[in-house]
Known about the structure:
By secondary structure, the protein is an alpha+beta fold. Helices cover 36% and strands 22% of the residues. The chain is built from one helix and three strands; from the N terminus they run E-E-E-H. A hairpin with a 2-residue loop joins strand 1 and strand 2. It is elongated, with a radius of gyration of 16 Å.
Amino acid sequence: MLNQFTAVFEEEEKWWIAYIEEMPGVNTQGATLEEARENLKEAAALVIESNREIAERGIAGKNCVKEELVVETR
């Protein structure tokens, strides 16, 4: 599944600091812009996977409905 987010990269001295606007807590750094970009992709994937696992444990054994939700933003 592919998702689109807004990545922000700030150059701080000799490092690139990166975060995703829509996902608080997903941030990283890299010595180069490309390294920061790749690190950010990995961090986002790990947070999504972890949140999904936590949610699965929370609903285990409960009567619930799971479905994809498409949200349009500007």
